[in-house]
Amino acid sequence: MSEQTETTSSTAAQRPEVTTDTSGGQPHDKTVLESRDLDVYYGDTQALQDVSLKIPEKQVTAMIGPSGCGKSTFLRCLNRMNDLVDSARIEGEVFLNGQNIYADDVEPVALRRRIGMVFQHPNPFPKSIYDNIAYGLRVQNKEVTDEIIEESLRRAALWDEVKDQLDKSALDLSGGQQQRLCIARAIAVDPEVILMDEPASALDPIATSKIEDLIEELAEEYTVVIVTHNMQQAARISDKTAVFLTGGELVEFDDTNKIFENPDSQRVEDYITGKFG
Amino acid sequence: MATETDPTFEGDAGLWRRKLAGQAFESLLVASTLVGVLALVALFVVIGNDAFGPSAAEPAWFLLYFGTLVAPISVYTLLVRRDEAASSINGLSFMTVFGSLIGSAVVFAVVDAVRPHDVAIYLVFGSLFPAIVFAYARNRESHYTGPALPLSVLVGLVTARALYAPVNSVIAIVADWIMFLVVVTVPVAAGLGLFVTWRWSRRYGVVTAVAVLAAALATAGGAITQGIDPAVWVVLVSGVVGPVAVVSLDTIQRRDSGRYGLLGPWILVGGIVAGASLERQLGIEGLDAWLTPTLLLNSWSSFRPEQAGIYPQLVGSILVVGTMAFLAFPVGVGAAIYLEEYAPSTGWRGRLATALDVNISNLAGVPSVVYGLLGLSLFQNFFGIAPWLPPALGLRPALVIAAAVTLGLLILPIVIVSSQEALRSVPDELRQGSYGLGASRWQTIRNVVLPEAVPGILTGMILALGRAIGETAPLVIIGVATTTYSAPEGVFGSAAALPLQIFASAANSIPAYRTGVVAAASVVLLVTMLVMNSTAILIRNRYENN
Q1: Integer Cα distance of B344 and A193 in angstroms
Q2: Are the beta carbons of A81 and B350 separated by less than 8 Å?
């Protein structure tokens, strides 16, 4: 799919090539998730500084940056998973369709039913494939039908491989299949947003490319926010990119083309071209 | 100083010295291990010699049993080991036969001691209400089903207590075996029927249940015409023959290879029976064993060692440990779940939880005698018993419930710590995955964490049970009678325990008690503990390899 532009000069920039087609020219860019002045502290350490970001609907938004710069922390703030960490303190606001999710009357469990999450290491439950997908439906008191299971597996491009073995344990699948199962599991409950924390980093290149194809398809139905430390991946699949740099600072957020070809900030330029990180 | 000679691989003196030191060290370690092993072997040999008296048997006896038992079983084992399917079927068969045998024996002994009519009343009421709730809630999705079920059990038990007098007066004249039918045969028939329905079809399930009931009734009829008390046979037929038949038939139908693995336990049993009957027919002098069925089934006698039986103590131990498990396990597992899943790790609540954690681990090391003192003060204050005064003064010895609570406190730290370990071993990613799908903490624990942690929790429970069965000092302190002549009548009857009887026999003036009876009773205790610990290890290994 995409190839890195390589030159022989030692000072030449290795600039990731952007191949997402902004198809249909969608200028509407309705904001579905927005953070305003978000600060996150783990104990006394500040993990995110004053992050303000608007995530558009039904597009793939990528967050890139060096390790430990707060990308995953930000992602976990979007569905209040950081509430589960005792030492985390969150200041600022995050809005889902205009509603502040950190307001007192918001139930985090209900929030996570509208924002799904896929993790870095595939984490299927030690149950059958069918029960894995049905799990989200069952805990949310939704009806479990064979059609929903089949639909979720088809959308995750896994149906053909497992349709005869729905009773098999999910742990018997390969790594790439398990991750697609986790994606199917997340979409079975029909969320509005899917958050993905480095979903392909634990997978081999073939499985990775299958996941990337899947993400592009998913963006037609869902809003996808993906954290990745692989710049080429971000360039390949995202519509918009946010660059976080060390210390939890959001340095730039714009269309993917702009970030990778002509960023405003010099630090971003240095990061993109591999001078550090 | 480069030399042109080729390097050789002969060591110098230093290398050889180090090698020697290494070997000496290894030998020392082997010796330490051997000391432990030899001590264990010496224990088994001494006790076994006293309990079984092998020196009294003729050489012909050993030959006989070699031919009927040892040889067939060895040949069979060699055959089975090579075949994986047969191996697993063999394991299943052994588990079914001996598990159901032991289970039925325990159930019979306990229910018989406590009074079958009482058990029947509580069982019927205690399951009637949940059954109603279950049938009502079956086709209706309701949040209340979950809590309603245990509540209905409670309501059932309370109703049973309230209605006990009138109901009892009605059924008191009904024979014991009919009560056993209700308490054992009906649940077993229902359970087997459900199993067969799940595996095969509804029709076969109904047939199975009816067959078990019919077989039990037929057995009872046959026994009555022969003039034997049918109760034991009813329990044996429904509790042993039923499950074994169902499992065997299911295996034969389902598996296409290795079915001969089903024969394992029968070769063992058949060998023993064949050997015993031949022994009698040919008049061969057998073992001078103290471990006989008499010992296991008779009531105690302090004067005639050949007639002495530990049946009351066996029932007493089972009752005490059973009640203890019922009380202590929910508390222990609940505490572990709170400390691992709910307790915060920061703030003053977090510090409190950490302090609790540390102290519970400390409690696991407190000497058992101290728990006896705790139990003593608890029950002395509540029930006004002064157990150190002899019962002849009209004061009661310790009750089963007192012993159960004391032992429960003793094993509580063990259960908590092992359950915590089991919960900790569940990978955090599974919890994260569950939360990410919009599950609450309770849902996550119930659907993901607990099922994963169950093998570890079970292992901890079994080890705690094994420890409690052998505890003597706390029971002595709270005043459990060391010699009991009849089994406890219930949870509020006076307690009896096997280790205490061993303790008392060792001080009996008649020498046969001090050597023979003590040894035989010790073997029973040892075998029980071995079986329980092996079960715990098997469960742990099986789930660790999954």
Answers
A1: 30
A2: no
pLDDT digit string (tens) for B82-107?
A: 888 888 888 889 889 998 998 898 88
Angle at alpha carbon of residue A172, lines to A181 and A159, rounded to 5°: 40
Residue in B433, B447, B452 closest to A123 by CB: B433
Give the nearest chain B residue to A171 (CA atoms): B546
Cβ atoms of residues A135 and A127 within 8 Å: yes
Order the strands of the A88-96 sheet from edge to edge. A99-100, A88-96, A31-42, A45-56, A249-255, A240-245, A60-64, A223-227, A193-197, A115-118
Say if B95 falls within a structural domain: yes
| pLDDT tens digits, one per residue of B37-76 | 999 899 989 988 888 888 888 888 888 888 888 999 999 9
In a domain? residue B11: no
Q: Is the ipTM of this complex over 0.85?
A: yes
Residues in chain A with CB shorter than 8 Å from the CB of B439 are: 109, 135-136, 139
Closest CA to B287 of B524, B511, B515, B60: B60
As a residue count, chain A comes to: 277
B180/B52 same-domain check: no
Domain, as residue range, for B37: 21-56
Inter-CA distances, A102 with A77, A250, B244, Å: 10, 21, 59
- Supply A253's token pair: 């957020």
Of the candidates A79, A109, A182, the beta carbon closest to that of B440 is on A109
Option in A84, A110, A189 nearest B437 (CB): A189
Put simply, whether the predicted model's pTM sits higher than 0.90 gets the answer: no
Which of B479, B497, B515 is where one domain is finished? B497
Q: Would B297 be classed as within a structural domain?
A: no
B255 plus B274 within the same structural domain: yes
Domain membership of residue B13 (yes or no) is: no
How many Å lie between the alpha carbon of B317 and the closest alpha carbon of chain A?
Answer: 38
CB A156 within 8 A of CB A166: no
Tell me which residue has tokens 């076994």: B48
With an 8 Å Cβ cutoff, are B436 and A189 in contact?
Answer: no
Q: Which token pair is B343?
A: 């307790």
DSSP state at residue B62: H
- Between chains, do B434 and A139 touch, taking CB under 8 Å as contact? yes
Mutate to test the interface with A, among B346, B437, B443 (most CBs of A within 10 A): B437
Alpha-carbon distances of B179 from A211, B207, B240, B396, B489, rounded to whole Å: 63, 23, 18, 30, 17
Low-confidence ranges of chain B (pLDDT < 70): 1-5, 141-143, 380-396, 545-546
Which residue from B minimizes the CA distance to A138? B439
Cα distance from B443 to chain A (closest Cα, Å)?
Answer: 7
Give chain B's domain count. Answer: 3
Interface test with B, best of A139, A189, A198 (most B CBs within 10 A): A139
Chain B 152-181, CB below 8 Å of chain A: which residues? none
**A141-145: long-range pairs with CB below 8 Å, 24+:** A141/B141, A142/A189
- Is B343's Cβ below 8 Å from some Cβ in A? no
Q: Which residues of A touch B452 (CB under 8 A)?
A: 126
- Name chain A contacts of B141, Cβ cutoff 8 Å: 141
